[in-house]
Design the sequence.
């Protein structure tokens, strides 16, 4: 399931190959993929538009088109955008096809492939973006300069709840999904079941540092080799071993999501009454 590093990597790749090119024609193969406007209007409005910029916000891909239009793409579970030759056989899960004009290499297409069909697109006037509720409600951008330790600390003021589901909230910090939340908590040496309100200042600093570092490393790894870089990531399976201490990882469910952590490196710590680390040790 694509998370911030995957979408960021895709945005960078598309920026290199798409900016400056024109969409000759769009074809909607699965009408449900286009949320707004109607597929007919979608096709008509895209015709002949040049791509001006490709950006990312949270897990949204933002493709700016000339004439003040913005194409917003969310990959959800299985979505992906690929640029291929128009001669290439169409993947059976292709939902939308954008024929591109050539810059010496005519016959290229941008294809939205999405097996599970949860992915979606909206084509909006860029000025309407400030009313587009998924973006309006979106939380801090963790790779942005503005995401400082102080900014993160202020986001936590007055918050309560379990730490892992809290990290998955797109309206607090945008872009973190299930896999990288586990990696972040592992790097910060924090138990996923900790209460947010119990975090001490040093732990908040570690968490902030881990968010930045994990997302940066994963993005760099994905752009370099197509594989994310993480320590607990490859061990996230039954019987997986902690890369730091060699103990078998624990598996639990938090907020309905499978959660892997090391019971030795990520102690529950303070703030959880009756936890085994406090009662049973020694
Ligand atoms: Zn460990």
Sequence:
């Amino acid at each position: 399931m694509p998370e911030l590093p995957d979408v960021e990597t895709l945005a960078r790749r598309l920026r290199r190959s798409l900016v400056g090119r024109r969409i000759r024609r769009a074809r909607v193969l699965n009408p449900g993929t286009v949320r707004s406007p109607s597929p007919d209007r979608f096709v008509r409005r895209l015709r002949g538009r040049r791509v001006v910029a490709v950006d990312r916000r949270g897990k949204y891909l933002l493709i700016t088109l000339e004439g003040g239009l913005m194409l917003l793409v969310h990959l959800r579970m299985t979505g992906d955008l690929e640029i291929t030759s128009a001669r290439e056989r169409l993947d059976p899960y292709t939902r939308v096809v954008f024929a591109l004009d050539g810059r010496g290499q005519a016959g290229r297409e941008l294809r939205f492939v999405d097996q599970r069909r949860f992915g979606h697109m909206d084509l909006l006037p860029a000025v309407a973006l400030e009313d587009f509720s998924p973006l309006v409600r979106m939380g801090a951008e963790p790779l942005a300069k503005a995401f400082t330790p102080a900014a993160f600390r202020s986001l936590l003021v007055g918050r309560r709840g379990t730490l892992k589901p809290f990290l998955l909230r797109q309206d607090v910090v945008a872009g973190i999904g299930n896999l990288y939340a586990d990696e972040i908590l592992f790097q910060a040496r924090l138990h996923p079941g900790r209460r947010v309100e119990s975090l001490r200042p040093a732990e908040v600093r570690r968490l902030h540092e881990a968010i930045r570092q994990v997302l940066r490393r994963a993005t760099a790894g994905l752009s370099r080799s197509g594989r994310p870089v993480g320590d607990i990531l490859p061990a996230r399976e039954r019987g997986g071993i902690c890369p730091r201490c060699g103990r078998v990882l624990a598996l639990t469910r938090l907020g309905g999501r499978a959660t892997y952590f090391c019971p030795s490196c990520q102690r529950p710590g303070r703030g959880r009454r009756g936890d085994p680390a406090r009662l049973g040790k020694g």
In short: Residues 271-282 have pLDDT under 50 and may be disordered. The chain has two domains: 4-136, 149-276. Helices lie at 4-18, 39-46, 133-136, 149-156, 163-167, 178-187, 201-225, 276-279. DSSP finds eight helices and eleven strands in the chain.
